[in-house]
Amino acid sequence: MMTRVKICGIQKLKHAQAAVQAGTDAIGFVFANSKRQVTINQARRIAEQIPSHIKKIGVFVNSSREELETTVHQVGLDFVQLHGDESPEFCENLGLPYIKALRIQHESDLEQLKYYEGAHYFLLDSASGPHRGGNGTTFDWGLLKHQDIDRQRFILAGGLNADNVQEAIDQTQPTMVDVSSGVETDGDKDPDKINRFIKNAKERLTCHTHNRM
Ligand SMILES: O=C(O)c1ccccc1N[C@@H]1O[C@H](COP(=O)(O)O)[C@@H](O)[C@H]1O
Question: What is the pLDDT of residue 1?
Fold first, then answer.
């Protein structure tokens, strides 16, 4: 089936609409401290104008359970994407569908996966860069080559763009690819880059027979 796409760091309705028009499967709002941060009201105003089959995902770093619950309910999020030091117990006790982001630098970093068995998806991102995500840096995809990874739950992120996304999919076989920096120009989302990214990603098939999202 076709690889799914998430366009993350959406701050303007016109960019969400451009992503939907280009065929995105999901959009992401960053609630964590970031140059892409949105308020609950901003995100809700965008989310309510986007078709319900497009998944709305909120990105957080070490937020409290109360903050996560409030944001999910007020914006109408389908998933929370957790980029901080949230423990497996914290994630499980949330009672919310969650995506756990893990930062990958060495093969041993993949051992964390076994602690997040309850995750709807796990997102593998680069560990380099000053922030907990959205750094525009890749990690060594070769680290995943001989790993027994549940590809139906695997989202690839970190430094993806229209020029490297096909190679990234071919090497790692994710169910979804997630991009933020790689579809921006001068710090703002760029509809042409969004289009190219989605077109290129969707030209690549993955071997999965079904998808959980
Ligand atoms: O995008 C951000 O600003 C951000 C801030 C804090 C945590 C995660 C963030 N974004 C996520 O980071 C990865 C990689 O992004 P990039 O394509 O390398 O810029 C992606 O999952 C974003 O959703």
Answer: 83
Q: Is 139 exposed, middle or buried (0-12, 13-18, 19+ CB in 10 A)?
A: buried
Specify the pairing of strand 176-179 against strand 55-60. unpaired
Does residue 52 contact residue 22 with C-beta atoms inside 8 Å? no
Report which protein residue has its CA nearest ligand 1's atom 22: 134
Query: Is residue 68 in contact with ligand 1, taking CB distance under 6 Å?
Result: no
pLDDT in tens, 18-61: 999 999 999 999 999 999 999 999 999 999 999 999 999 999 99
Backbone dihedral angles phi then psi of residue 73, each to the nearest 5 degrees: -75, -40
**Domain map of the chain by residue range?**
4-202
Cβ within 8 Å of residue 146, ≥6 positions away? none
CA 173 – ligand 1 centroid, Å: 20
* 59 Cβ below 6 A of ligand 1: yes
Q: How far is the CA of 117 from the centre of ligand 1 (A)?
A: 22
Instruction: Give the Cα separation of 12 and 27 in Å (integer).
Output: 11
Q: 178 by DSSP, 3-state: which?
A: strand
Q: Regarding the domain with residue range 4-202, which homologous superfamily does it belong to in the CATH classification?
A: Aldolase class I (3.20.20.70)
